[in-house]
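User: Please predict the structure of the protein below. I'd like the answer in structure-token form so I can feed it into my own downstream comparison script.

Assistant: Understood. Taking the following sequence of 435 residues as input:
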Amino acid sequence: MPSAPPQPVQLACPSCGTRFRALVYTLVDGGEQPELKAALLTGQLNVAVCPGCGLASMLSAPLIYHDAGKQLFLVYVPQELNSQPQEIDRFIGDASAFMMRALPAETPRGYLLAPRRFLTLQSLLEAIYEADGVSAEDLRRQNRYVEILTELVNLLEDDKQFTEAAQRYNADLTPEFFATLDAFINATNDAQAQMRSMLIKVREKLMAYTARAAALAAAEEVKTAIERLRAAGDDELPALIQELRPLIDYGFFELWTEQIEAAEAAGDTATAQMLTARRARILELVEEIDRAAQELFERGSALIDAVLAAPDPAAALRERAAEVDEGLLTVISASIAAAQHAGSAGLVAQLEMLAATAREIIESRLSPEDRFINELLAQETAVEATRMLRKNMTMITPELARRLNERAEAETKRGNQADAERLRQLAREASALLF
């Protein structure tokens, strides 16, 4: 189907008054023009960027979206245009006639006689996403990303305000957000070179900001870990070291030594001696943990080698089910990563099969509550986990709530704060549903 060309319009920037020309699309064919569909869905269609000050503005224009494969004929006319009904009908009629002529003879045309009209551009986009099978939650998240990026684009020239905005949206700056930003950049066409350049600058500034924020957060995390280890009792130390082990490295001991030296310089001999003794104990416990981890890895590797040498590795692993635990799964995961790095596709497949078998063995030992908890944790989002919880009311018992809290505590001790908080949230929801 031939495409409808964009219309040139003359504009004056509302910020600096610069006059310039821009292109406006009034017809987008989603099946034939995927690049325009991507621009529409990412908020970049009919966006004019002032060449003088860089202000990006959405142009108010009527729009028809067509997709013959999905039989979509969607119409949006901005209310602020104050178009007369006969003008809108003529606009729709001309577009319908154009598509009637352009479509191949065997293509269904009935849907062109019943266009769906939308009062807002957002509602039209939702209809397109719905036809593509995108969930309402994904759409809301996408819309938020568009709002954030729009604000950041307009703050590019003001470093202070850009940084303040990045700090406000820090929780949203996830890998998914950056993947979306990359998709937006890739969706721009040659006519949107200036917008592409601005989005690339946004990405560069955000990457620099997140790197600084991560470094500051890591330093603060180590500082907090030192404070906790200083305040802990001797009997609390082993569990706390287990939790904080990922933070205890050369830099950690450097900071700890600085505190000893500061106490000595201040003449606080008692504090210096206490910190010196505690440092020695921490080092001793770290060595014990690392030694145990190495032994775990060696045992797991030996078991993996043994079962892979058997004619039926899965059966061989089941025969040694008593040796299968979460530690073995960790070793298998590490082995899979190493095999992938080495490009050993066959070994990767074997190890993935072993991992699935090991999970089946572990699952078979679990209580009904633990199996259900694992299913909840396997959900991609917290919303989906909550939905699953509410759909299984017969599983919600005081024992489930208790077990959720127990596992949250166990994850805290392992240092898995994200999983611990997710378990606590599920425990709160389960407890609320009991009453």
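That's the full token string. The two ends are 60 Å apart (CA to CA).
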